[in-house]
């Protein structure tokens, strides 16, 4: 039984509908111990024959036997197996891994065949000695001469310990001296193997061969045996295992760094993707933040993102101790005690010539800017105004307003009476801002008055008359108005109220009030000291000069009014210094016994703005996809240059699966280095060594989950590219890649 035997084997090539013959009806028996030279003119089918014998190419007709076994039914996997067990290849163009050292090239075969690294060192060095390259063992192969390279290839073919060595024109690229040395070496080292050498320089090899086969036009025309060969039925094949896990990792890492230019280019691509993704994301978040900040809350006037509104958990009003605690707290920029002043409706002022102004109120003690006209207020009846661009007061007509007396329109009746209180506008500032409102700066007392009015407006007021309780507004009376002329403990009521009192007369009757609002609840009983029926009784009781028949107000002494409505401030606002510490500030406020309301979390973004945000998301997605595609193709080009490497290791007995794994590990190593560099940059940024705004922004807006996601994306991309290009690499057969056909 022969080692290899071919019976009427033919090989055709089909390309573009044309059938070309590789070789036709070849009959051949090959045995171990033979040193066979195949010669013939170019194109006669020598390489094709070798490729079929090597299991690199299929055949169409006849039957090839390996150790007596038919191969026509062999699958790709079977041939992979066969190559690993039987075949060592040597090529005209060496097909070494140029970026590896001599040692690494030979070690590679043994690692791919499942040996442990530490077990093979001696073996590798022995082989290197055998081919006379010990001195060059740590030299990169790319620096060797052609003859030396072919010696490495011989050592590598021997390392596999296969029974067959196939060499296709191994001396084709060598000068004649190197060529004869290589052939001599080959004949020496491969004594008991089957060696098949293709050459068209037969003279060089003549003295070593045991057999000469000549081909012409795809047929064997001569087959001469010079020596009787003893057939040996006990063929020793290479015993290989699969590459170990650690050696896969080892080779993957070696390949990652092996070719510096490739490493740097891939690293640059990955870094570029990481940066592009994170910069894009951070700037998107930044936009989102700005949009959110510009959002509105229909119930709040001051929607500063730094503002926190406070109430006390025990529902009591704020006292000096509270204000003290709050102003001492960390990260508090400003404390506003009169919180309603920020949110209240503001105040309207009129004068008798119908000049009118409206503004949100603030305490004039808070005003620290420069006035354009006039001076600061000096008492409760003076105020100043800060005008926006939309004000009714403008620069040219300011003197119509300045130093004029105005009255408040808090109550129609009071504002109509002759003895109403007057307030003088003593200073004006134009701030040039395009805001909706002016700001009116008034005294503490006026702020308190408007606050009281605010509490009155927000309260549910119940009235108990003659043991029955009514809501104030259901009694058809007007509002409760504080008036000095009314005696403490009493009220003056309109005639309309009589219907609810015993005997339809309210005079001297008890009326009790119950006030409920979101801050407190309180009761007060008062005695009716007068009922007005007409102009005369009204004027007599109230001392007010203006009267009309629709007046139905209840008048009360200011002290009693204060008992019901002046209970102190139940709400305050603080403004933080540093938004980064916002959450900590909320926690310490909670710990101090305050309920907090973060204004920035209550803002509502208008639909049109939200749509712009959605568009931005779409644009961001498109940019990211484009980046991905670009990087993908750049990586593809770079990975393509690895084709020769992977074809080479396939020749050496690596399976597709192993090649895929090696490529995956190689790319993952590089993508993770890119991640590490990125992490390093961020750490340096965090420590303040890097101040570039791009990185500062990233640090600001990305949190741990997003970093994890980024890490995941980059590594997935690495993985996908490796799978995709492993496929691409294997689309062409290994042999056509090595022959440089594509
Ligand atoms: P040699 O090695 O003796 O120079 P080859 O074995 O390379 O010759 O080629 C034998 C014949 O097969 C030639 O006619 C060649 O054109 C043809 N051939 C070789 N490879 C291919 C291929 N991949 N596709 C089509 N024809 C091919
Ligand atoms: Mg050839």
Work out the helix count. 22
CATH architecture of the largest domain: 3-Layer(aba) Sandwich
* Average pLDDT, all residues: 88
Bound molecules: adenosine-5'-diphosphate, magnesium ion
CATH class of the largest domain: Alpha Beta
Report low-confidence residues grouped into runs of 5 or more: none
The beta-strand count equals: 28
Question: Quick one: overall form?
Answer: rod-shaped
The helix fraction, in percent, is: 40-55%
- Assembly state: single chain
Strand content: 15-25%
- As laid out across the biggest beta sheet, the strand order is 21-20-24-25-23-26-22
CATH level 3 topology of the largest domain: Rossmann fold
How would you describe this structure to a colleague?
With 742 residues, this protein is of the alpha/beta class. The chain has five domains: 4-241, P-loop containing nucleotide triphosphate hydrolases (Rossmann fold, 3-Layer(aba) Sandwich), CATH 3.40.50.300; 248-288 and 608-741, no CATH class; 296-337 and 570-601, Alpha-Beta Plaits (2-Layer Sandwich); 340-451, no CATH class; 459-565, no CATH class. It contains 22 helices and 28 strands. The strands form five sheets. It has a seven-stranded mixed β-sheet with strand order 21-20-24-25-23-26-22. Strands 6-7-8-3-9-10 form a six-stranded mixed β-sheet, with helices on both faces. The chain has a six-stranded mixed β-barrel with strand order 13-14-19-16-18-17. Helix 3 crosses helix 4, helix 4 (117-130) crosses helix 5 (146-159) and helix 19 packs antiparallel against helix 21 (704-731). The longest helix is centred in the middle third of the chain and has 34 residues, at 260-293. The protein is rod-shaped and about 150 Å long. The chain starts with a strand and ends with a helix. The site of adenosine-5'-diphosphate has 12 residues, from strand 1, strand 2 and helix 1.
């Amino acid at each position: 039984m022969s080692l290899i035997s071919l019976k009427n084997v033919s090989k055709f090539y089909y390309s573009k509908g044309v059938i070309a013959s590789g070789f036709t009806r070849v009959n051949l028996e090959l045995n171990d111990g033979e040193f066979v030279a195949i010669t013939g003119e170019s194109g006669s089918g020598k390489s094709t024959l070798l490729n079929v014998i090597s299991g690199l190419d299929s055949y169409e007709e006849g039957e090839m036997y390996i150790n007596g076994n038919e191969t026509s039914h062999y699958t790709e996997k079977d041939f992979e197996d066969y190559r690993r067990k039987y075949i060592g290849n040597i090529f005209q163009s060496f097909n070494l891994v140029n970026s590896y050292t001599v040692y690494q090239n030979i070690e590679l075969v043994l690692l791919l065949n499942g040996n442990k690294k530490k077990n093979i060192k001696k073996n590798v060095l022995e082989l290197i000695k055998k081919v006379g390259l010990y001195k060059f063992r740590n030299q990169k192969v790319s620096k060797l001469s052609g003859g030396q390279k072919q010696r490495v290839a011989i050592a590598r073919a021997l390392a596999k310990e296969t029974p067959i060595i196939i060499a296709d024109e191994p001396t084709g690229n060598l000068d004649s001296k190197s060529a004869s040395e290589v052939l001599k070496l080959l004949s020496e080292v491969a004594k008991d193997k089957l060696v098949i050498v293709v050459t068209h320089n037969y003279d060089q090899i003549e003295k070593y061969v045991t057999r000469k086969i000549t081909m012409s036009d795809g047929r064997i025309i001569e087959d001469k045996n010079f020596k009787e060969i003893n057939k040996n039925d006990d063929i020793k094949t290479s015993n290989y295992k699969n590459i170990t896990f650690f050696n896969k990792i080892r080779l993957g890492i070696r390949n990652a760094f092996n070719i510096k230019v490739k490493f740097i280019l891939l690293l640059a691509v990955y870094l570029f993707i990481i940066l592009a993704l994170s910069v894009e994301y951070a700037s998107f978040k930044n936009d989102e933040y700005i949009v959110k900040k510009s959002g509105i809350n229909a119930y709040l006037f001051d929607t500063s993102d730094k503002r926190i509104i406070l109430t006390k958990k025990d529902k009591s009003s704020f006292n000096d101790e509270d204000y003290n605690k709050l102003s001492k707290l960390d990260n508090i920029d400003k404390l506003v005690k009169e919180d309603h002043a920020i949110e209240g409706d503001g105040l309207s002022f009129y004068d008798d010539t119908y000049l009118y102004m409206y503004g949100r109120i603030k305490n004039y003690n808070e005003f620290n800017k420069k006035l354009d006209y006039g001076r600061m207020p000096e008492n409760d009846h003076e105020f100043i105004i800060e005008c926006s661009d939309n004000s009714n007061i403008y620069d040219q007509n300011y003197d119509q307003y300045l130093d004029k007396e105005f009255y408040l329109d808090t109550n129609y009746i009071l504002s109509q009476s002759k003895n109403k209180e007057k307030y003088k506008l003593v200073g004006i500032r134009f701030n040039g801002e395009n805001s909706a409102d002016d700001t009116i700066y008034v005294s503490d007392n006026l702020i308190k008055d408007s606050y009281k009015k605010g509490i009155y407006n927000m309260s549910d007021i119940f009235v108990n008359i003659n043991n029955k309780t009514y809501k104030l507004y259901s009694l058809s009376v007007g509002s409760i108005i504080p008036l000095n002329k009314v005696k403490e403990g009493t009220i003056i009521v309109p005639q309309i109220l009589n219907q609810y009192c015993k005997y339809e007369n309210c005079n001297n009757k008890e009326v009790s009030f119950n006030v409920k609002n979101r801050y407190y609840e309180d009761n007060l009983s008062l005695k009716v000291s007068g009922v007005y029926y007409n102009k005369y009784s009204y004027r007599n009781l109230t001392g007010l000069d203006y009267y009309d028949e629709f007046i139905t107000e209840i008048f009360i002494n200011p002290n009693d009014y204060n008992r019901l409505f002046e209970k102190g401030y139940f709400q305050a606002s603080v403004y933080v210094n540093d938004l980064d510490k916002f959450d900590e500030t909320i926690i310490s406020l909670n710990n101090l016994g305050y309920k907090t309301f973060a204004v920035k979390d209550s803002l509502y973004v208008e639909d049109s703005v939200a749509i712009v945000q959605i568009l931005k998301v779409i644009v961001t997605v498109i940019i990211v996809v484009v980046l991905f595609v670009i990087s993908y193709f750049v990586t593809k080009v770079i990975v393509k240059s690895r084709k020769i490497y992977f074809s080479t290791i396939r020749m050496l007995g690596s399976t597709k699966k192993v090649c895929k794994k090696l490529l995956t590990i190689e790319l993952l190593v590089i993508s993770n280095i890119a991640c590490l560099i990125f992490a390093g940059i961020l750490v340096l940024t965090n420590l303040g060594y890097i101040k570039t705004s791009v990185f500062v922004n990233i640090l600001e807006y990305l949190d741990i989950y997003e970093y994890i996601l980024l890490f995941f994306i980059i590594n997935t991309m690495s993985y996908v590219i490796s799978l995709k290009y492993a496929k691409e690499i294997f689309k062409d057969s290994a042999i056509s890649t090595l022959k440089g056909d594509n």
